[in-house]
User: Fold this.
Amino acid sequence: MITKRIIPCLDVKDGRVVKGTNFLGLADVSSPVELAKYYSDGGADELVFYDITASAEGRRLFTDTLTEVASGVFIPLTVGGAINTVDDFDRVLKCGADKVSVNSGAIKDPDLILDAAKKYGSQCVVLSVDVKRLNGEFRVFARGGRDDTGMEAVAWIKKGVALGAGEIVLNSIDTDGTKDGFDLDMLRAVCDAVSVPVVASGGAGGIGDFVTLFKEVPGVDAGLAASIFHFGEVEIRALKRELAANGINVRLI
Assistant:
């Protein structure tokens, strides 16, 4: 049985971890270095680091902060933010990342997925997709949820996997920060369409939401969350004990 993963997400702006709702209203949380070490020591299976304004601000990802984060964690680290070229992959990997997340850069140039997968392997390429419902359609947004691309999400994700993406992070803009639960319908649609691991992101409000996620959408490989972990509302070890008690296979430490 595949072990389900629990992944805290560090949304980093100006060198600090921040959190908002529906991608808006960002508030300061903590130092990414301190928070990353806390999660690495506290039972997280992986960690995601997003420089969330790099693309919108047209700059490169802050590698100094990333290097310090990577040096203090001992779990896989996925990094994203203004990844527009294979050279950006190289730069981030040299800072200590294990996987690289592409979003707006892949929308602008889908061959970035293909080129990066050829050079580093599909297991290194994570396609992160920000999705919102518009007129009954799952629509892909770019630049941190700012720009409607006009693309249908499932079709885009299938194309990304065909090009070589080895994992999908599905970010629901509709449920982001709302704490009303994961977007199960959206996740089902994506899990039914692709065979690579799918990470659910957006909407976790408590332990029960993770239990529901893995029971209702068994094809999902991992649950990602931010604020409920950052503010101590859910402790990862307690979450995993509850998942195990519900028959969901997790790594217990």
Notes: The two ends are 18 Å apart (CA to CA). Confidence is low (pLDDT under 50) at residues 23-28.
